[in-house]
Amino acid sequence: MIQKYVYGHPINTDAVVMEIPERRETLSVMELTESDGVRLCCRMEENDVVYGLGEQVRGMNKRGFTYISYAEDDSIHTENRRSLYAAHNFLVLGRRNQEKSLNKDQSFGIFVDDPGRVVFDVGETKYNQLVIQAGSDCVIYVIDGEGLKDIVKQFRKLIGQSYLPPKWAFGYQQSRWGYRNEDDVREVVNRHHGQGVPLEAVYLDIDYMEDYKDFTVDKEKFPKFGAFTGEMKERGVHLVPIIDAGVKIEKGYPIYEEGVQNDYFCKDENGENFVAAVWPGRVHFPDVLNQEARDWFGGKYRILMEQGIDGFWNDMNEPAIFYSEKNLKKVMDEVLSLKDENLDIDSYFHMTGIVAGLSNNQEDYKSFYHNMNGKKQRHDKVHNLYGFNMTRAAAEAFEKIAPDKRTLLFSRSSYIGMHRYGGIWTGDNESWWSHILLSMQQMPSLNMCGILYTGSDIGGFANDTTEDLLMRWLEFAIFTPLMRNHSAMGTREQEIYQFERIEDFRNIIRIRYGLLPYIYSEYMKAALTDEMYFRPVSFDYPEDAFAYQVEDQLMVGDSIMIAPVYVQNAKGRYVYLPEEMLMVRMHSLEDRTSKVLGKGHHYVEIGLNELVIFVKKNHVLPLAVLDKDVKTTADVAETNMEWLGFIGESVESVEYVLYNDDGISRDYVPEKDWKKMIVQKKELERV
Ligand code: MIG
Predict the structure, then answer these.
(1) Ligand 1, from 315, 411, 424, 458: best to mutate by most atoms within 8 Å of Cβ?
(2) Residue 685's pLDDT band (boundaries 50, 70, 90)?
(3) 244 close to ligand 1 (CB < 6 Angstrom)
(4) Could you report the per-residue pLDDT of 197-212, keeping only the tens digit for each?
(5) Mutational test site, ligand 1, from 205, 213, 322, max ligand atoms within 8 Å of CB
(6) Cα(206) to centroid(ligand 1), Å
(7) What is the pLDDT confidence band of residue 98, given thresholds at 50, 70 and 90?
(8) Which of 49, 297, 628, 663 has minimal CB crowding within 10 Å?
(9) Which tens digit of pLDDT belongs to each residue from 498-533?
(10) What's the pLDDT at 687?
């Protein structure tokens, strides 16, 4: 059951799609005080767990830290970060009884629909206290149900169906900030294909643009862009350009001119177009919270789509600000006034502080305004809606520009509700081992908030990767819907062909293509029925006291559990099995062995070039048989499949619901796309 409570005069965020009658009585699961905003508080018992909050640092169980919902472009994702790029204000408090299994009646979910700053103190200040601090205008939804999965499912129904990407978006994708021109891109494709490695997409980072101007293509680097996208498509490769939030201020640049003429940009307090700076230097921000401006900005994606583009990533849409013109002037004046001074500890740190404070400055976020349905709205109160609405602008436009097909779209910043329009990637991680684990922990939290199409930069974005890090990362990422190797300019090149163990890389990526029927089926079913594709182990085994402690294993879809290795030089790891499972070990898609392991703790050896999955009892999964030269998802013939599975003694057959479709059209046809497969025990391959 979902209960809705309204405080003050909240803005309609469009996070929610279901009409729920407002409750007049006071909220019961948490104690509420209304002074200085809405403050909710409740006691947490020793064994209670808290899941949710989407894109944040730390564990799946969020207890013991304070998280702040305030979208921020901060590229150092260490465990002291309170905010990353998104605001996902939903959590579930799982209460546990004496036996440490879930107490369904007392557990609940809570969604704080407030697009400004919201603070979740999940037992940091006091271990036994959960405190949520929102603004004075907000809507609060409280959800109870039949356990954690059910609470999440109800929340997902409340916020609407998750985005459906095209099937090609489940292939292997390569990106790097630094591919400069046609030849760079051709080389990436040639070298993957030359090594027999499938490749679905190459990303175009900011360098493809003319002076970082949105919707332009540099003619020197890409003289015939339309022809080039065609050439790539013939080879099965989609080009995916980046779009940034800031529109360059430049006379004669049509997007700038039109935005100014029609008042489509955010304004400062005097009603002038607000000037910030990002890549191109001075920019204006399109006011995507204004429906008219949103239609206009979204319509611009057509320029690239007409040249053959069918996928985009939206960046810098927190929105990130390097500096505002106004603040820069103030800081410059102050720094100049210190010229020739003897800087002591205070004045020196003051100086470096104000310079560092130029970017993403809170004062700047308070100094510009949106036009929301004719009402002037100060940005900081609706800050977390910007990335959501930039992405919505694109998605709404795609319905007109390409109504018959699905377009790939994901964003850096997001708010609850954006999952209906696109996915996200988890931003600028590092080539650190701890960031494989972070990514694993973020996935189920994101899924809880409806964001199913997601993944992190494989190999790590910042810093130099190593061959073993990339290999282990891929072994996890073959399960993430978005499987993209991406890195920053200036770091070690990390396309798989830059390393020696190319055969191992090829084997791992081919396993992804072999698993495609399963991954696609499980993704689509999760999206269409409001389920989670990635789940913490405790979601599936709520009666198992130890499952709540498992922070580095995941349930993936209905049939399997994974336990990736994320420690350098480790030759294996401990794995907890909440029940008897079949461990399948793969050296390659074709070279597999398997063994039944009992419930409990096991040390499992997992070599650098091995992939291990655990199949749940009485479950099966389809595995495609691949041709030698498979290059894309389109080459994966779903007619040629075998079944991996684990069927118990007394059972003869099990059912698997296989979802498949043409991978591109928007209307799905339940009768045709869902197939109930009965798999007989004797059909299971003997491995
Ligand atoms: O602040 O476009 O997160 O993926 O490569 C850098 C350059 C801007 C940040 C994105 C990253 C991308 C980079 N962008």
Answers:
(1) 315
(2) low
(3) no
(4) 999 999 999 999 999 9
(5) 205
(6) 8
(7) confident
(8) 628
(9) 999 999 999 999 999 999 999 999 999 999 999 999
(10) 43
- Provide Rg for the chain, Cα atoms: 25
Residue nearest atom 5 in ligand 1 by C-alpha distance = 177
The total of other beta-carbon atoms located within 10 Å of residue 479's CB is: 25
Q: Is 427 in the pocket of ligand 1 (CB under 6 A)?
A: yes
Written as one letter, the residue type at 191 is R
**Residue 102 beta carbon below 6 angstroms from any ligand 1 atom:** no
Q: Which of 177, 179, 312, 458, when mutated, tests ligand 1's pocket best, judged by the most ligand atoms within 8 Å of its CB?
A: 177
Where exactly does CATH 2.60.40.1760 map onto the chain? Answer: 2-159
Give the nearest ligand 1 atom to 175 CA.
5
User: Which of 207, 196, 287, 284 lies closest to 239, judged by CA?
Assistant: 207
In CATH, the number for domain 525-683 is: 2.60.40.4040
Ligand 1 pocket check for 412: Cβ under 6 Å: yes
Pocket flag, ligand 1, residue 205 (CB < 6 Å):
yes
Whether the per-residue pLDDT at 487 is higher than 70: the answer is yes
Q: Which residues face 388 on adjacent strands? A: none
Give yes or no for residue 315 CB within 6 A of ligand 1.
yes
522 lines ligand 1 (CB under 6 A): no
Q: Mapping DSSP to helix (H, G, I), strand (E, B) and coil, where does residue 375 land?
A: strand
2-159: CATH class: mainly beta
Q: Which two tokens stand for residue 174?
A: 């390569």
pLDDT at 671 over 80: no
Proportion of the chain above pLDDT 70, given as a percent: 100
What's the CA gap between 464 and 430, in Å, rounded?
A: 8
Residues 621-644 as b or e (16 or more Cβ within 10 Å = b): bbbbebeeebbbbeebeeeebebb
177 within ligand 1 shell (Cβ under 6 A): yes
Residues of the chain with CATH 2.60.40.4040: 525-683
pTM: predicted TM-score of the whole model, two decimal places: 0.97
- Report the pLDDT value the prediction gives residue 683, as an integer from 0 to 100: 87
